Amino acid sequence: MVPLSAPAVRGVKICGLTEEAGFDACIAHGADWVGFVFFDRSPRCVTPAQARALSGRHAGGPARVGLFVHPDDETLARVLDGVSLDILQIYASFERAAEVYARFGVPVWLSQPVSARADLPVACPAAVERILIEPKPPASASRPGGNAQKLDWGLMQGWTPSFPWMLAGGLTPDNVAQAIEQSGAPAVDVSSGVESAPGLKSPDAIARFIQNARSALFSG
């Protein structure tokens, strides 16, 4: 068994923010990224104006991430006209991700759903800054993303990609440390796992999630 290393600072993203208490908790507890969802089938969907109002509560701080599902250029342009975003996180192909980066010049993250080790990407296009690894949604799902499913974190053991990546799907304050220890994830993303109701973030859960992620050990 490989000995556990000392705790490492983990990148933490809190996604699906819709209200002030959740956003303020991200600021207070030092989240690295805050995410706004621009997908109308999600209970966490916000308008550019709502995202701008939340983001304006604190100058600087976490990078602002906009989440989009197979967006066209018109949608991206409309949102970017309404709120300043540091990163575009999209569900799309590698080719489309490259087009988005070329068109808008904003760093692009690409979501990569997996169900087996063979699904893990072996390379990352230069136009993609980071890949998010998350479970493949069930056939009955109405939207992509983790859908509160937990990935088999052991799939990532021994996987040493040369590009930045992030683990998402089914994470909570109670399991995030274990997820990091088993997967070696350098960063983690949570949405429903820190909510008291769909779209309503719990400041206490956000605080515990960030604390537990940052104190996790890595056995890689």
Automatic annotation (TrEMBL):
<dbReference type="InterPro" id="IPR044643">
    <property type="entry name" value="TrpF_fam"/>
</dbReference>
<dbReference type="InterPro" id="IPR001240">
    <property type="entry name" value="PRAI_dom"/>
</dbReference>
<keyword id="KW-0822">Tryptophan biosynthesis</keyword>
<dbReference type="GO" id="GO:0004640">
    <property type="term" value="F:phosphoribosylanthranilate isomerase activity"/>
</dbReference>
<dbReference type="Pfam" id="PF00697">
    <property type="entry name" value="PRAI"/>
</dbReference>
<protein>
    <recommendedName>
        <fullName>N-(5'-phosphoribosyl)anthranilate isomerase</fullName>
        <ecNumber>5.3.1.24</ecNumber>
    </recommendedName>
</protein>
<dbReference type="InterPro" id="IPR013785">
    <property type="entry name" value="Aldolase_TIM"/>
</dbReference>
<comment type="similarity">
    <text>Belongs to the TrpF family.</text>
</comment>
<comment type="pathway">
    <text>Amino-acid biosynthesis; L-tryptophan biosynthesis; L-tryptophan from chorismate: step 3/5.</text>
</comment>
<keyword id="KW-0057">Aromatic amino acid biosynthesis</keyword>
<keyword id="KW-0028">Amino-acid biosynthesis</keyword>
<keyword id="KW-0413">Isomerase</keyword>
<feature type="domain" description="N-(5'phosphoribosyl) anthranilate isomerase (PRAI)">
    <location>
        <begin position="12"/>
        <end position="212"/>
    </location>
</feature>
<dbReference type="InterPro" id="IPR011060">
    <property type="entry name" value="RibuloseP-bd_barrel"/>
</dbReference>
